[in-house]
Amino acid sequence: MKRRAFISASGAVAASSVFPLFAIGKSGGSANGKVNVALIGSGGWIARQPVQQGCGDENLVAFCDVDRELCVENMKNWQTTQPFYEDFRVMFDKMHKDIDAVVISTPDHTHFAATMAAMERGIHVYVQKPLTHNIWQARTLLKAKERYKLVTQMGNQGHAGMGIRESVEAYRAGVIGEVSEVFALNGGPDMGGMHFANPATMPPPTSPVPKGVNWDLWQGPTDPRPFYDGYIRKKWRSFYDYGSGMLGDFGCHTFDTPVWALDLDPPTVIDCISRKDSLKGVIPAGSQVDFHFPAKGDRGPVKLSWFDGPQDWTKVGRIDKFGLEAATSLGRSCWMVGSKGAIGCGTHAGKPAIMPGDLRNSYRENKPAETIARVQGGPFREWLRAIKNEGPEPGSNFTYSAKLTEIILLGVLAQRFNTRIEWDAKNARITNHPELNAFVKEPAREGWRYGENLR
After folding, report:
1. What region does 126 belong to: left with phi over 0, alpha with psi -120 to 50, or beta?
2. What secondary structure letter does DSSP report for 330?
3. Strands 84-85 and 269-275
C-alpha cells in the first residue's frame, strides 16, 4: 500500500491508535530491520546527538541544512552517497518515499513547517524542544498527530529518564502531600556571551552573509530582513521572532516533572512579575513569570513561579519550608512544595531530592512501587522502537508535548510584553489583551504555510 493511501485509510481509526509506517511506507519491518532516517538541521553538535544516541544505528538516508559550512565536519564523518539538501521542502518532494522518519533540529521558528511537511507525507517525526514557536502551531501538530497516526517525540531528554519517573511516582504515592506551589529557575541567559546575542540597537547592525549560508531559507516563515551575525549560529534564541529565550530553551526540561506529576493543563493566568529591560524583540537578561493553574480532579490550584537570569535568592524564589531556603536549595532547578514535604529536580529532571531529611529517609526505606514503565537507551531509541513496533508510544509524544509547549509559550508571551495574560484555553484566546492574539497564531509568508486544512 502506498504511503498516502495508508494515511487516508488510517484516518478513520481511533486517535489513540498508532500505526507505524516503516520500510518506505509499508507496515512492518524493513529488509534489514532498520529505519530510513533523514536529518533536518544536520550541522553542529545538535545533529550529532541523534546520530550518537540511536539514529546512527539506522539507515541515514538524507541530510538537510541551510548552513553548509556548519555541516562540513558532520558530513565528512557520516556521508557516503547520501544526498544533501538546503531546503527540506525539496528533500521531501524528491525523497519522501525513501524516508521513514526525520529528526528536526532547526531553530524554533521553522519547527512547525518542517514537522508538518513530514507528517503530511507519512513520515515519523522527532522535533527538538520547544515543539513550536506559537500556540496555534502546537495545537495544530496535536491535530496532525491525531489525523496521520504517526510516531512523534519532542526532545526533552529527561522525560525518558529514571529520575522523572521516581519523582512522579513519589508525588502520586502522596510522599509530599498536596502540592500548591512550584518553583523553577535557570541562571541564564548570559547576554552577549557564547549563546545569546545582545545587540546595541534594534534592528541590529547588518553584516555580510557567511559563505555557505542560505539566509532566505534560514528565515523560513518570518518576514525577510538583513543579515546580522548574532542571529546565527547559536544566538537566535535571543530574538523572539526566532526563539523563545530561556523559557523555550530550558522550560520544556525544567517544567517537565511538575507538568507530568501534577497533570497540569494550560494555566488560566500568566503574570510577568518582573523583567529586566531589553530592546524590542530581544529577550531580557532576567525575569520572574508566575503561572496559575486551576484545580483539577482531587488536586487544588497550583502556582508555578519561573525565574531566569541572575537573581538575589535571598529576596526572590523563597521557600522557607522543610529546611529549604530558596529555589536554588541543594543545587536543584525545580521544587514541588507540598503539605508534608518537597521534591526537588534538576534542570533536566534527574533523580529527585526529598525534603525534609526525615521524610527523605522514610522515602528511601519505603520507595513507592514502580508504576511507570522505564525507558532504555534514551528518547531517540524510545522513538525508534515505537516506529518498529518494538515498544510503546514515546512519552513525550505530541499529545503530551503540545500541552507542555503551550504552557511554555504562554509564559514567553507574558515575559515578552511584560504583562499579565488571562488565557481562555477552550477557545485559545487571550481575553484581557486581545491585541496579543496576533502572536497566538503568527503569520507565515508564502510557501511556508501549513496546517490550515486541519480542523
Report:
1. beta
2. G
3. unpaired
Rounded CA separation 178/41 (Å) = 43
**Alpha carbon distance 116, 110 (integer Å):** 10
pLDDT digits (tens, 9 = 90+) for 228-284: 999 998 999 999 999 999 999 999 999 999 999 999 999 999 999 999 999 999 999
- Give all domains of the chain, ordered by start, each with its CATH number: 3-159+380-397 (3.40.50.720), 162-195+234-372+406-435 (3.30.360.10)
Quote the pTM value.
0.93
DSSP 8-state secondary structure symbol assigned to residue 240: T
From the list 431, 408, 400, 388, the residue with the least C-alpha distance to 19 is 388
Distance CA 408, CA 13 (A): 31
In the block, residue with C-alpha cell 481511533: 14
More confident residue, 123 or 7: 123
Enclosing H/E stretch for 138: helix 135-148
Instruction: Report the pLDDT averaged over residues 378-405.
Output: 98
Cell numbers for 252, please give them.
520544556
CA distance 240 to 281: 5
- Which residue shows C-alpha cell 531553530? 107
- Kindly tell me the sign of the dihedral angle through the C-alpha atoms of 114, 115, 116, 119: positive
Name the residue with cell 507505524: 20
Question: How far is the C-alpha of 63 from the C-alpha of 42, rounded, in Å?
Answer: 6
Q: What is the 3-state secondary structure (H, E, C) of 24-82?
A: CCECCCCCCCCCEEEEECCCHHHHHHHHHCCHHHCEEEEEECCECHHHHHHHHHHCCCC
Are 292 and 267 in contact, with CB atoms under 8 Å apart? yes
> Cα separation of 180 and 311, whole Å?
23
Instruction: Using alpha carbons, select from 257, 256, 244 the residue that is nearest to residue 189.
Output: 244
The whole-number average pLDDT for the span 34-42 is: 97
Q: Report the DSSP pairing between strands 124-128 and 101-104.
A: parallel
Cα 271 from Cα 133, distance rounded (Å): 20
Q: Which residues contact 425 (CB under 8 A, 6 or more apart)?
A: 265, 266, 268
Indicate the residue type of 30.
S
Q: What are phi and psi of 397, to 5 degrees?
A: -65, 170
* Residue 213 backbone dihedrals phi, psi, to 5 degrees: -100, 125
Alpha helices in 294-420 (DSSP H): 357-365, 379-387, 398-416
HSE of 103, CA atoms in CB hemisphere, 13 A: 32
Quote the CA–CA distance of 187 and 309 in Å, as a whole number.
5
Spell out a b/e string for 64-96, using b for 16 or more CB atoms within 10 Å of the CB, else e.
Answer: bbbbbebbeebbeebeeebeebbebeebbeebb
Q: Is 191 helix (H, G, I), strand (E, B) or coil?
A: strand
- Three cell numbers, residue 91: 528533500
